[in-house]
Design brief:
The structure is a single chain. The chain has a single domain, classed as c-terminal domain of poly(a) binding protein. The chain starts with 5 loop residues before the first helix and ends with a helix. The protein is built from five helices and no strands. The protein is mainly alpha-helical.
């Protein structure tokens, strides 16, 4: 007896092509190339999830540094002053304050500067 399995094969192809939709060139519509691109994309997605954490930390530090310099202090001095003042606030929250609530950020800068002087 011969089993063709065309519906299963077609469903398998349709699933892969829907995943690779938007890929460039033959990677979206030729099975072998699409499969290779899909497997490569999975490995990139894994490493991308790790890189995302680093990228966001860099972004927060850049935002904090820009706001700190606008208040007359460098990023490293601000972090050092906050530690000496025993103010435990993470960089994500500091960056959010720097962007959305500048008066509160300025108060934290003042406290950090006073902790550095004493």
């Amino acid at each position: 007896m011969r089993v063709k399995g065309s519906s299963a094969s077609r469903n398998k192809l349709k699933k892969l092509y829907s995943i690779t939709k938007g890929f460039w060139g033959r990677k979206k519509n030729v099975y072998r190339r699409a499969r290779e691109a899909y497997l490569h994309a999975l490995t990139s997605a894994f490493s991308g999830r790790k890189l995302k954490k680093r990228d966001f930390r860099k972004l927060w530090i850049m935002r904090i540094n820009a706001a700190a310099r606008a208040n007359g202090i460098a990023y490293s001095a601000l972090i050092n002053g906050l530690k000496k003042a025993e103010i435990n606030i993470n960089r994500k929250m500091l960056a959010d304050l720097a962007v959305n609530d500048m008066p509160a950020f300025s108060k934290l800068v003042e406290k950090a500067q006073s902790a550095l002087k004493s």
